[in-house]
Design a protein that fits this description.
Layout lengths: L1 E8 L3 H12 L1 H6 L4 E8 L6 H6 L6 E4 L6 H11 L4 E6 L3 E2 L3 H5 L7 E5 L2 E4 L5 E6 L9 H7 L10 E4 L20 H6 L5 E4 L5 E4 L3 H6 L9 H23 L11 H13 L11 H14 L5 H16 L2 H8 L5 H14 L1
Parallel strand pairs: 1-2, 1-4, 2-3, 6-10, 7-11
Antiparallel strand pairs: 4-9, 5-11, 6-9, 7-8
Helix pairs in contact: 9-10, 10-11, 11-12, 12-13
Length: 349
């Protein structure tokens, strides 16, 4: 069996070497399970020292260099076309895998499984552990039913997903113009319509957070953004991915009747902190509270206490003075709050 690690990179030369090292470190533990690992690094026309970093590895990696910057889909398309693995992992160039990540996932490589997912520890720009992991909630099994209900499901960022090739390859190559950003969305969503999703219980890699501007606004991720932009991007990602599903598989998914609880957090923060940029003009505090109550009641994985705390948090954000709501935004990505939630969940179970 072969597994392909596909690293897509643009101007992350300062992190790229560590990502490649973590991919190559899989070889020893994977070989003990009869697994061959190939590492392919696709550079989307970087202007920093990324090519110099890649050249240091010689024949230990395969490489692809874009002639011009054409976005994330371009690099992912190239990597998948070059790869030969029965399983595929798209590793972001600023993230890391634990040395035994793929060997550990091998235990779940059985018939009917389309994707194996695992949590990621959060690390700072310098690699220091931040004391928390993402995501807070992971769904597994028939998550296609959750996508039809919420438009998404709980799962990790790109680097925490190992896909069976046959569950995703027919959706490639992705249209570059539509997927300059967030090109990891089609495999994340559409693989679920081709088999079950299985979750590893422990973190098997690291997600690097190096955008302090996002953290101060309560936005997640490293691309500078605002809550209204997050909502627009999420809508595009969902609609474009499901349109691809309909075009390729003939499986039409109507607009979901509910919104995921984490999406409603972003809507509340957008409405309160930047109302002029809010993309849902009909939103009111009352409507968002009602939507959240319905969403939390239907979304699996939350304890009773977590649902009550989530409702209290949203009510505070929506009803307190604007200055307080802006301060509350920072708790949306608070590591301390998430650790408290996890401790509460462990205590209750």
């Amino acid at each position: 069996m072969r597994i392909s690690i596909l690293i897509n990179n643009f101007n992350y030369g300062r992190y790229l070497g560590a990502a490649i090292d973590s991919a190559l470190a899989q070889e020893t533990s994977a070989a003990a399970r009869g697994i061959e690992v190939e590492t392919i690094v696709c550079d989307d026309a970087s202007t920093d020292d990324s090519r110099t970093v890649m050249a240091r590895y010689g024949h230990r990696i395969q490489t692809w260099y874009g002639q011009e910057n054409r976005g994330q889909a371009s690099a992912m398309n190239a990597g998948l076309a070059m790869s030969q693995g029965e399983w595929v992992l798209f590793l972001d160039a600023d993230d890391l895998l634990d040395p035994d990540a793929l060997a550990t996932c091998a235990a779940w490589m059985r018939d009917g499984v389309a994707k194996i997912q695992f949590p990621l520890r959060c690390i700072a720009s310098d690699g220091a552990c931040m004391g928390r992991q993402i995501p807070f909630l992971m769904h597994e099994g028939r998550v296609d039913l959750l996508i039809e209900r919420f438009g998404t499901y709980g799962g990790p960022p790109s680097s925490g997903n190992l896909y069976r090739r046959s569950a995703i390859d027919r959706y490639f190559p992705l249209e570059e113009a539509a997927w300059r950003r967030a090109a990891d969305t089609p495999p994340f969503l559409l693989s679920a319509f081709n088999g079950h999703v299985v979750s590893a219980p422990q973190a098997l890699g690291a997600y690097r957070i190096h955008s302090t501007a996002n953290r101060s606004r309560g936005c997640f991720g490293n691309i500078p953004t605002r809550h209204g932009d997050v909502l627009r991007i999420e809508h595009h990602r969902r609609a474009a991915a499901l349109a691809l599903l309909a075009r390729v598989d003939g499986h039409a998914v109507p607009p979901p009747p509910l919104h995921a609880p984490w999406t409603l957090r972003s809507r509340a923060l957008s409405l309160r902190t930047e109302p002029d940029r809010h993309p849902y003009p009909n939103d009111t505090p009352t409507s968002l509270l009602r939507m959240q109550a319905a969403s939390l009641a239907a979304c699996p994985g939350y304890t009773w206490a977590e649902r009550r705390v989530a409702q209290l948090w949203l009510a505070v954000v929506l009803l307190v003075p604007t200055a307080w709501a802006t301060r509350m935004a920072m708790t949306n990505t608070s590591g301390r709050l998430r650790r408290w939630f996890r401790a509460l969940r462990t205590h209750l179970t």
